[in-house]
Write a sequence for this structure.
């Protein structure tokens, strides 16, 4: 009798293992690592120059870094409420769909995969390639072709890991997060030691406002917020988080407070060892810092920065395809992208879809302008998502909300986001206008292909035929159980 019961339990576990669905495999430590590992990319090693240049003084730049961290924490707390209120994966897309309707949700999906995600991934992978290659060619300029080749290899590695296994991608993220935190500690310690020895001359008269102009101050915040970008990625994988009502808010708070403290301390270390003029002359602040304060380890810093970029790239490829996966599941994208590998249990088609887009953008090199486009669209849709949260609260006050952010925080964050978007319309109308046009180009696509489904019947039959062939080739199937 006991043997039969044990055999029944074993058969049940085996049957559960064979079910095609996304498993809940992300605990608290991987969740924290996922956020920190995605936020801490190349930004903290490059952005300090832009923050100082546009704020005009050491004291104001440190204030900007602190305020950007607080603002990012406010946004992350809003997304913690959204993530526990709506238990589907998909992040921005899901929240817009649930609060404001299908058209804003589709437009977010459209811009994410037409230019936001390929542009951001290309930028980060280029930073990875540059730091790897320039280590071998310093002080000479590294060949551009070689930088792009190494960048493509980095993207290929990340895509392979995310196609192979969710747990492998998660372990890779944890490992790379510890590496990049070690890099930040390696910068902070010499700065703190120098500060303790009384090296404070760069902080004297730290709040000089002679060089401050109001039109440049928003640009300082743009640079700071870019370095904090990525706090919303855990919401893309809500259905894969263990005990999301506890772990999502906890992971968000722990990770964003940690990142803010580390970022401010890193900047204090920079200013302790380097004068503001020296920092402004550097294109790679961390490398210049290492050559002054870590002479024996100066060659290690570029490698650590490269691994930091790889971690941010892995986080992006882990999170963003889940938005495409959920969009396809809701009928806003071809059905093939809502399918999962029958053995690996990874959203294989959604991950693979991004790969050629990123590689193509890397090869063409038109990346930096698209980054400017991406910033406007990203903040506009984040503002819409938190506005939708406030509207949903008003319309459905009794809806279960396991985590509820204070109303003042939600309002402040939403207002600031719309202010950032409005200011970009004033300060950079060309790039902002281009971003608006690219976003609105999704409206006719939505009405032709989804709202009324007016594609010719022959096109649909050809598309369905190739979808079935692709499904067989990739060995993928739709989810067999509901995971939300």
């Amino acid at each position: 009798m006991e043997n039969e019961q044990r055999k029944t339990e074993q058969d049940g576990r085996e049957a559960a293992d064979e079910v095609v669905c996304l498993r809940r495999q992300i605990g608290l430590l991987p969740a924290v690592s996922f956020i920190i590992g995605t936020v801490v990319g190349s930004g903290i090693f490059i952005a300090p120059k832009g923050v100082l240049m546009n704020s005009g003084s050491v004291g104001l730049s440190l204030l900007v870094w602190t305020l950007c961290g607080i603002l990012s924490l406010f946004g992350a707390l809003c997304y913690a409420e959204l993530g526990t209120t709506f238990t589907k994966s998909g992040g921005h897309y899901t929240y817009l769909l649930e609060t404001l309707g299908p058209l804003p949700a589709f437009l977010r999906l459209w811009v994410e995969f037409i230019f936001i995600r390929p542009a951001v991934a290309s930028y980060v992978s280029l930073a990875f390639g540059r730091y790897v290659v320039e280590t071998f060619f310093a002080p000479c300029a590294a060949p551009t072709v070689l930088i792009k080749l190494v960048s493509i290899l980095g993207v290929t590695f990340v895509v392979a890991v995310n196609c192979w296994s969710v747990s492998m991608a998660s372990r890779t993220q944890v490992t790379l997060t510890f590496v990049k935190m070690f890099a930040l500690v390696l910068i902070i310690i010499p700065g703190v030691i120098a500060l303790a020895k009384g090296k404070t001359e760069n902080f004297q008269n730290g709040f000089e406002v002679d060089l401050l102009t109001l039109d440049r101050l928003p640009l300082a915040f743009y640079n700071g917020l870019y370095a904090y970008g990525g706090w919303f990625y855990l919401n893309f994988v809500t259905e894969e988080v263990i005990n999301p009502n506890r772990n999502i808010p906890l992971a968000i708070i722990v990770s964003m407070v940690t990142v803010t403290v580390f970022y401010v301390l890193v900047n204090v270390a920079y200013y302790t060892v380097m004068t503001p003029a020296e920092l402004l002359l550097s294109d790679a602040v961390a490398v210049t810092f290492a050559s002054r304060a870590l002479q024996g380890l100066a060659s290690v810093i570029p490698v650590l920065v490269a691994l930091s970029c790889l971690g941010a790239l892995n986080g992006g490829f882990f999170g963003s395809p889940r938005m495409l996966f959920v969009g396809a599941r809701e009928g806003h994208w071809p059905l093939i992208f809502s399918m999962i590998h029958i053995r690996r249990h990874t959203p294989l088609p959604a991950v693979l879809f991004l790969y050629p887009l990123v590689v193509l953008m890397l090869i063409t090199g038109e990346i930096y302008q698209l980054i400017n486009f991406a910033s406007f669209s990203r903040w506009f849709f984040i503002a819409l998502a938190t506005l939708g949260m406030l509207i949903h609260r008003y319309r459905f006050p009794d809806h279960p909300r396991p985590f509820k952010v204070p109303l003042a925080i939600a309002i402040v964050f939403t207002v600031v986001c719309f202010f950032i978007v409005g200011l970009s319309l004033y300060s950079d109308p060309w790039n902002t206008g281009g971003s608006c046009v690219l976003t609105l180009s999704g409206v006719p696509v939505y009405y032709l292909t989804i709202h009324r489904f007016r594609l010719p019947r022959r096109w649909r039959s050809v598309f369905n035929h190739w979808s079935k062939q692709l499904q067989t080739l990739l060995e993928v199937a739709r989810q067999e159980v509901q995971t939300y």
About this structure: Confidence is low (pLDDT under 50) at residues 11-15.
